[in-house]
Task: structure prediction
Amino acid sequence: MNYSVGQVAAFAGVTVRTLHHYDRAGLLSPSGRSDAGYRLYGDADLARLQQILFYRELGIPLDGIAAILADPDANALQHLLDRQRRLGEEIARLQRLAEVAEQAIAVQRTGVAMTPQERFEVFGEIAFDLSYATEAQQKWAHSEGQRESMARAAAHSKEDWRRLMAEAAAWRTELLAAFDDGEPSDGERAGDLAEEHRLHIARWFTTCPPEMHRRIADDFAADPRAFALVVPPSQQRPGLAGYLHAAVHANADRRTAARTAGRSGSGRSGSGRPDSGETR
Result:
C-alpha cells in the first residue's frame, strides 16, 4: 500500500517539510510516484522512516543515521554504544546541575532575599559560575568540609554576607598592593595575606587546615572560574593567580613545619596562634 507525503507526515508525527528534507538529503526517498508526480511511500519506506525517527530521538545526527542505514551490520551497534555513553555523560551532568540547583534553593529558603541592586552592592563583580559550581560539587561531593561550607553559607544572613564580602574586598586590596609592589610570594607580607585568606575561610565557611588551603589554591591556579571568585577579572593581573598559589603553598609549608616542630615542644605554631584555622 502506498501513502502520500501528507498521510505519512500525519501518522508519523513529523512535518511535510521534514520528509522533503530527508528526501533531499538522500536519507529517505519515496519509492513511488503518483500519476500526477506526487511522492508515494510504501511499507519499506515507512519501516526506514521508523528507524530514522528512532535514531533521531536518541540524538544521532542525520549523517550518523545515514551511515548506520547504509551499513547497519557494521555500524549500528557502535553508533548506539557511542550514543549510550554520551547520554550517560549528559545524564550525569544534568544530575550535577540538579544538585547545585537544590543547594541554591536551600540558600533561597533561608529567607536571605536580595534585590538585584542589593546583590550588586554586596557581591559587586564577584559572580558564581554555575558550571564551576557543578564541577566543584562533583569534585568535593564526599568532603565534610564541602558539606559544612554549604550549610554555613546557607545560614548566613544578608548582613553576614555584607561583612564577609567587605572583609574579602579589604584583603583583595592588600593582595593587589603586595603583588604590584613586587613582594616575593614566599615573603612575610604574602605569607600573612595567605594566612588571612585561610582564616577568612575558617570564619565564614569551614575549618581550613593548611592542606585544604593548598587544594583550594591549586584550583585558583588551574581554573580561572575559581580565581574569579577571589579576584574579579577587572582587577586581575597576569601572574596574580600563580602568585597567590605560591604564597598559599609557602604559608602552608611554614605552618606544617611549625606544627611538626611544635609537637615536640609546646604544640603551637611558631606564630603563637593555633593551627586549626578556627579563629572566631
